[in-house]
Design brief:
Layout (H helix, E strand, L loop, with lengths): L2 H12 L2 H4 L6 H23 L8 H13 L5 E4 L3 E7 L2 E11 L18 E4 L2 E4 L6 H17 L5 E9 L13 H6 L10 E12 L3 E3 L2 E4 L1 E10 L3 E2 L9 H19 L8 E9 L5 E2 L2 E10 L2 H21 L3 E5 L9 E3 L1 H15 L5 E2 L9 H7 L2 E9 L21 H19 L4
Parallel strand pairs: 3-6, 3-7, 7-18, 8-17
Antiparallel strand pairs: 1-2, 2-6, 4-5, 8-18, 9-16, 10-14, 10-15, 11-13, 12-14
Helix pairs in contact: 3-5, 3-11, 5-11, 7-8, 9-11
This protein binds zinc ion (2 copies).
Amino acid sequence: MNRLAAALMCACLTLPAAAIAQEAQRGEVTAAAAALQAKVVDWRRDIHQHPELSNRETRTAAKVAEHLRGLGLEPRTGIAHHGVTAVLKGGRPGPRLALRADMDALPVTEETGLPFASQVTDTYRGQTTGVMHACGHDAHTAILMGVAEALVGMREQLAGEILFVFQPAEEGAPEGEEGGAGLMLKEGVFADFKPDAVFGLHVFSTLNANQIGVRAGPTMAASDRFGMTVVGRQTHGSRPWGGVDPIVAAAQIINQSQTIVSRQMDISKQPVVVTFGAINGGIRYNIIPDSVELVGTIRTFDEDMRADVFKRLTSIAEHVAAANGATVETQIPAEDGNPVTFNNEALTERMRASLQAASGAEPVVDMPLIMGAEDFSLYAREVPGLFFFVGATPVGQDAGTAPSNHSPKFDVDESALDLGLRAMLQATLDYLDTPAG
Ligand SMILES: [Zn+2]
Ligand SMILES: [Zn+2]
């Protein structure tokens, strides 16, 4: 059986009859994608070769701003440090839509062996490290630059207005700095232009580069960092009764916290993860220290469950510490984390046909829940959001075992740039033409 026949058969087996009479990809999308493909590949290779850490995206932001200026737009720069936005007004009245791409790279030393692999190094937490677009934000930026160019070319026929959002620091600002979507919103990215909806995409290793994935409702987890300091009283290791041992108390807090997921939360509703990532306490084999520090992360998919886990973890820490004669200082959460990335159900169902039109014979994949987090969630908390996934792994390679996002071997097959561009463009045009449909 050839691939097309296999794909069609697969589509017949997995899609309801109504979905098979799918919307075709718009002619103007096909034409724009063909015209822009080589440029998008060049932009992405250039950005890939010159990655910049979160809140350090000066070159990338300058490249984006120059491109937008060249298209005749008037970009706003310097939002949330290096954010760039621009508004495109169509020739006809219509809704307002925001399209977002992130621009930052990670402290990862690249091992892809690509001819345009990054050789860049920078300082992260006091250490010299390689810098790499290991999450594919280079692809997101290049795709949105292409989408902007395509839409400017269709300006007269466009219904409505589009806000392009090129965002820095999605991976999190360096310690002691603010950044990312939260700061973009704080600095008014939606204040002058309140969109009716926001779209974003992410390239993803678990899909092949001819696949698009989407999910209605909760899609990516809320991510919250926590910290606790268990305080005892220092004493000689031979005389534990002479003090209060925070190491034993910390061990019991860690063990007891496992029951939040296994015994307390209704995990038939949504999954929950509580992970301790580091323990620091003590300096010498025969000294019971004064205190032990614990840090970790909480992942949830429901705001009530999220608040509930905070309460339960705090309660366990306080009560177990007290039962040991110790005290505990908790930061649960330690900062404003990312909320659940929530895809508006009605919007997602409506735009699924647009995504299907772009992926053609390949059925749009119903994504499983992703325990990772995204600060796109902050925009989608303000207005209805749609966040979808485009496969990064070459067709024919097992996407289940391909190097994942954040790996030094993570790579984006260049055909994903074309698919991402077509999907974003098709969804945008469909949305602007029938906003309330
Ligand atoms: Zn990432
Ligand atoms: Zn990412």
